[in-house]
Design goal:
Blueprint (H helix, E strand, L loop, with lengths): L13 H5 L8 E10 L2 E11 L4 E6 L5 H9 L6 E6 L7 H4 L3 E4 L11 H12 L5 H7 L15 H13 L5 E5 L7 H16 L3 E5 L3 H7 L2 E6 L2 E6 L1 H5 L4 E6 L12 E2 L5 E5 L2 H15 L4 E6 L3 H10 L5
Parallel strand pairs: 3-7, 3-8, 5-6, 6-7
Antiparallel strand pairs: 1-2, 1-4, 8-9, 10-12, 10-13, 11-12
The structure holds adenosine-5'-triphosphate.
């Protein structure tokens, strides 16, 4: 993908568009419920996304991420609760759509439109101004300008989806599983484009099942399970909810270490700790003083994957 700021369309003046309310969160979700018949897909969900933030809505399959996003996008009405985007109802299309770019999980482009026609159509529908040339350059689809959507590969369709979301460099970009089906080059390019938009001050909310992407990029994460938050916070706050681990094997005849250990496979021992650095130092100091070799020593910080795995094993969250 090419540069996002090539000067062919002026970036919106964030200060003027704010109308003097820049301290107000871009997205405000308060006690949101989404029900399908008797089924509560989203249960009393409350969170805010601040200006310039990258907020990742993560969770197990069927957790309610897309249902919540659809209300924020203005594509679905809340069963109860309130959602405000730029202080307005997301169904107030005239106020919100020019400022919000959306990449849906599945593209809704007409198969017989060309790539350029699809981008132009979105431009007209959203009221944002930009050029087809610029956005197709961003997603490296220039060579497909006159190709019909039906003839694009799956990854090319995702890139077209992204192109329409960033058309006009909107202040808020909603990305529902943006990198699913993209090769590594296209993923890197997409994130580079997102980074450039954020440098311009754009706010991003996304869902993804690629936890490493969220771990690397999200300012805050809302981790959903069964319609509600399991945890919410920064990556550091989430990983702090589980212990890190130190693993080693003691030689035969070595004294017992000064920390509680649990036996692991093949005679190894594990120390689980919320104080990795301190406990590791304690163990190493003890080993040195006692002349003990800690065989196959490893220390593993808690990862977002671990927090995710803990969801299935924990009792149901009400
Ligand atoms: N139109 C619908 N009618 C009935 N049930 C629905 C509808 N849409 C979603 N659901 C149900 O609501 C729940 C939440 O779905 P949703 O798509 O919001 O989850 P998600 O977190 O985005 O899941 P995934 O990670 O699998 O994409 C699921 O149990 C799903 O089966």
């Amino acid at each position: 993908m090419g540069p996002l700021t090539d000067g062919s369309a002026a970036a919106p003046d964030r200060g003027l568009l704010d109308g003097g309310t820049s301290s107000r969160p871009v997205i405000e979700v308060e006690a949101l419920n989404v029900t399908y018949g008797d089924f509560r897909a989203v249960k009393d969900l409350s969170f805010q996304v601040r200006r310039g933030e990258l907020y990742a809505l993560l969770g197990t399959n069927g957790a309610g991420k897309t249902s919540a996003l659809e209300v924020i996008e203005g594509h679905r009405r809340a069963s109860s609760g309130t959602v405000r985007v730029f202080g307005k109802s997301p169904t107030d299309r005239a106020a919100v759509r020019p400022r919000m770019g959306i990449m849906l999980q599945e593209s809704g482009f007409a198969a017989d439109l060309t790539v350029a026609e699809s981008v132009r159509l979105i431009g007209r529908l959203t009221g944002r101004s930009d050029t087809v040339k610029r956005v197709l350059g961003v997603v490296d689809l220039t060579s497909k300008t006159n190709t019909r959507v039906a003839q694009l590969s799956g990854g090319e369709k995702r890139r077209l989806d992204f192109a329409t979301a960033v058309f006009g460099r909107p202040e808020l970009i909603i990305l529902d599983e943006p990198t699913t089906g993209l090769d590594i080059q296209s993923r890197d390019a997409l994130w580079e484009a997102v980074d450039q938009l954020r440098e311009d001050g754009s706010t991003v909310i996304l869902t993804t099942h690629y936890l490493e992407e969220a771990q690397q990029r999200a300012d805050r994460i809302g981790l959903m399970h069964q319609g509600t938050f399991w945890h919410q916070g920064t990556v550091a706050e989430l990983t702090r909810t589980l212990p890190a681990s130190i693993q080693f094997t003691l030689p035969v005849g070595a004294p017992a270490p000064p920390l509680d250990t649990t036996p692991a496979d093949e005679g190894a021992q594990i120390i689980e700790t919320y104080e990795l650095q301190r406990e590791l130092k304690r163990l190493l100091d003890w080993a040195e003083v006692n002349g003990v070799e800690l065989v196959d020593l490893s220390a593993a910080p808690t990862r977002l994957d671990d927090v995710f795995r803990a969801i299935d094993t924990a009792p149901e969250h009400s």
